[in-house]
Amino acid sequence: MITKDNYMALNADEKCQLQLERLQSTLNRACRNVPFHRNRFKELDIDISKIESISDIARLPFMKREHFSKNYPYDLFAVPLREIVRIHTAPGTSENPTVSGYTIQDLKTWETILSRALTASGVSFHDILQIGFHPGLSNWGRDYKRGAEAIEASVIPNTQLSIEKRMMVLRDYKTSVLITTPSAARQLASYIIRKEININPLELKTLILAGEAMDIEDRHKLEETLQVKIWLHYGLSEVPGPAIAFECECHEGLHVNEDHFLPEIIDPASGNTLADGEYGELVLTTLTTRAFPLIRFKTGDRARIQKRDCSCGFGLKRIEWWNERTDDLMNIDGVIVNSKQIHANVKQFLSVPCGSARFSVAMRDEKKYLEIWIPLTDEIFSDEIKFLEMIIHRAEERLSENLGIPILIKLKEKKEINKVK
């Protein structure tokens, strides 16, 4: 049975009261220290002192990703900069990235959250844990490292390695737990099959995947190929981090850390709150985050809150998370990007007019990336093939750096591009 902490020992009324107290504290701090929240509440004539129950949260306005970019870089911080000990950036919805900050207390909170999620996955001080995220999720690597060290597991920190080196570390260092993205796990499985590697000598038994949801068929295929048990974690690449929700030993949905996050499911069109069991958009409110509070943040992720309690006895609400979105954004290995942002970057680095490029999520060698079609124009055309290749390669590097995802640029004739909507 999973070890339960103090929150799990509370009864339903006590949990609700704790959530309400933390919600009221978050609203007061945000209203006092963040002009964005204070002005919105004033414009909508909202008196936060009248938020007297959890259900009253439905009276508050939503936060969207565009608000992060508009308040770049620090205008959404609820504490002075001198109290910020970590600053993290992620792609925004415009040319401005999302900037989130963490206090010492925030980092301790995330350590607790990650320790809980890892323990639920059966990780203990006996394990050797290897972390493998791409640069866009490097912050997650740090969080998982802290959480694993808190339960005294041995940790191989997040490092960018080739597939050959990753396989070598798995084998030689006797890794028992691997934390990575679904795409990276599929790439590893494909490499093992292609190279006909005998996995019997491996100590790997647990695969924790974060960044994207997985369908049952894909999950079972990975478990069979790698001879592991898979556990899914849900998080946000922008803010605040991984394992907001996690699977327990029953694998019947993901438990939300509801002592730290208040989950809602809404109709994405009307904004109305939906009942448990109905599919809609997941909305999250932070309850313990000090530096960067989120109030009714629209994640864009499609999910539902499950009605019945889990038989594990954990006592936390569970969500069923679908690999679908309720907006026009794209999830590439856990990093969220949108079309305006891509067009702005293409225009900046290749002088291509906004709207003329086409792009899609593609796979190459089991690795997910963003493929961008660029119209062949006089501005970027050159008789020197090597010079043209250099321009494209440089643009791929700059785009990848800005967006936090792998990029592949292809030059296409205008008539071919115009066929693609």
Description:
Helix content is 33%, strand content 23%. It has 421 residues and is α/β, with parallel strands linked by helices. It folds into two domains: 1-327, 3-Layer(aba) Sandwich (Rossmann fold), CATH 3.40.50; 338-418, ANL, C-terminal domain (GMP Synthetase, Chain A, domain 3, 2-Layer Sandwich), CATH 3.30.300.30. An eleven-stranded mixed beta sheet has the order 4-3-5-6-7-8-9-13-12-11-10, with helices on both faces. A three-stranded mixed beta sheet has the order 16-17-18. Strands 1-2 form a two-stranded antiparallel sheet. The chain is globular.
Gap from first CA to last CA: 52 Å
Class of secondary structure makeup: alpha/beta
* Helix count from the secondary structure assignment: 11
Low-confidence stretches: none
Portion in strands: 15-25%
Number of domains: 2
User: How much helical structure, as a percent, in the residues?
Assistant: 25-40%
Main beta sheet: 11 strands, mixed
Spatial strand order of the main sheet: 4-3-5-6-7-8-9-13-12-11-10
CATH class of the largest domain: Alpha Beta
